[in-house]
Amino acid sequence: QNSVVLSAAIFITLIGLIIYLHFVKIDQESLLVIGSLGIQVTSSYASGKESTTFIEMGQVKDVVINEAIHMQKVIYYLCILLRDPEDPQGVSEVVPLFQSSKPRLDCLIEVYKSCQEILEQRKTAPQSS
User: Which partner from 4, 17, 59, 68 sits 20 to 30 angstroms from 109, CA to CA?
Assistant: First the structure.
């Protein structure tokens, strides 16, 4: 009887580990910004599964570095501010990036500068109809 309980516990633990690796444990995160198209955010899980989100550039209002207090510590993270369709000056949603990898501030600043360069090029480029 004890061996049945032990076998069941091991089986449940293995199933839980497989579910964790497949749906929760993010191994790598990437950001691709193309000024004329949009922003693609890709998360690669430990199991090899990938999740991709695409945000059209017309929806993007700005990219910012935000800060939060977590466990008596200030953490920084990169966010995409989405334009509110009803209010051009407003923000409808804040999309945080790199939530699993939590890069240091100096790395975030480099990514932020690159994103801002692309956004500035898009603003200064003549709009074709």
Answer: 59
